[in-house]
Specification:
Elements lengths: L10 E9 L1 H4 L10 E7 L1 E2 L2 E2 L12 H7 L1 H5 L1 H7 L5 E8 L5 E3 L3 H8 L6 E8 L4 E6 L5 H9 L3 H4 E5 L5 E4 L5 E3 L3 E8 L5 E4 L15 H4 L11 E2 L9 E5 L4 E14 L6 E14 L2 E6 L3 E4 L5 E14 L2
């Protein structure tokens, strides 16, 4: 079987806080006015990505990993994770504020949910003039202060609010209390996990008048009550891979593409490109593939040499 750059059908998720920018800004085929998420590459149970291009069209990502594990995900990734695909890639449109939430670490998630934890990063693709994010506490806190603030509806007063603009990056280790604010479009890279503990949802209700479930007690021993430094500064040198995040779970580089770049890989890991601005082509063994803003492509690990070319801003993600 000859592998090639793979794209997938977007898995679109309606959310109480979602909007329409995934269509107007990223060309996703949304069917509602409250589409909050486009899962670009996923093997979360019941949300497994289906290939949308080429000879493997219609097959699931799990199917081809089961059949060609090392060729698809890479020798190192296979030895570390077996046939599990360890990352989840999304675009998010926050028309309204998301809930204030936290994700458990690997040990807690495995114990309670038989899941990975959820370390993640956000790349801000678009931000309205007053857009902001919540990331961690302003000052060192405690379980007692957290519970008291919730009871008195003052949790937000404890949390650090950041004004954001296009190109800002935040790296959220597990345990960091956070919320994406209204007026942002975000590219999100995270561990394969859908475990979220919701702390506060601004007392809002859905179309049926129901509030969303909170997980206040579960979050108690998941929260990091220390001040965190989540914002990442990074260089933007043209036509090279500028490191943005390099952690145990993934490496993310930023490529300001203005021309062409020859890429060489070693077969240890798959590579994912998320086009966050502009458009580019990828040439692999004489075949040319075209991508534009909002596109996500998975390069199987056995694709060792290729060229990317265009005028674009591209996130490059792999496992080191």
């Amino acid at each position: 079987m000859k592998l090639y750059p793979l794209q997938f059908q977007p898995i679109l998720k309606d959310r109480i806080w979602g909007g329409t920018k995934l269509n107007t800004y990223l060309n996703k085929p949304i069917t509602s006015e409250i589409t909050g998420e486009s899962w670009e590459i996923s093997t979360v149970e019941n949300d497994v990505s289906i290939i949308s291009n080429g000879s493997l069209k219609g097959k699931s990502l799990n199917e081809i990993i089961n059949e060609f594990p090392e060729k698809v995900i890479g020798t190192k990734v296979y030895h570390q994770f077996g046939k599990q695909f360890p990352l989840l890639f999304k675009f998010l449109d926050a028309r309204e504020d998301l809930s204030i939430q936290v994700h458990p670490n690997d040990a807690l998630a495995a114990k309670r949910h038989n899941s990975f934890g959820k370390t993640e990063m956000w790349f801000v693709m678009q931000a309205d003039s007053d857009a902001r994010l919540i990331v961690g506490f302003k000052e060192k806190s405690s379980p007692e202060e957290y519970l008291n603030s919730l009871e008195n509806k003052k949790l937000i007063s404890l949390l650090d609010t950041k004004r954001v603009k296009k190109g800002d990056v935040f790296f959220l280790e597990t345990g960091t209390v956070h919320a994406i604010g209204a007026g942002t479009v975000i590219a999100e890279i995270q561990q394969t996990s859908d475990i979220t503990y919701r702390l506060y949802d601004f007392d809002r209700v859905d179309a049926q008048g129901n509030t969303r479930e909170l997980h206040i007690d579960l979050a108690l021993d998941a929260i990091n009550y220390n001040v965190v430094a989540a914002e990442k500064k990074y260089s933007k040198t043209e036509n090279i891979s500028n490191t943005v995040v390099d952690c145990n779970y993934f490496t993310t580089n930023f490529i300001p593409l203005n021309g062409s770049v020859l890429v060489s890989k070693n077969g240890n890991s798959f590579t994912v490109y998320m086009c966050v601005e502009g458009s580019f082509t990828l040439n692999y063994q004489g075949e040319v593939y075209n991508y534009k803003v909002g596109d996500t492509v998975l390069l199987p690990a056995e694709l060792l040499e290729f060229e990317i070319k265009g005028i674009a801003s591209v996130l490059e993600i792999y496992i080191s």
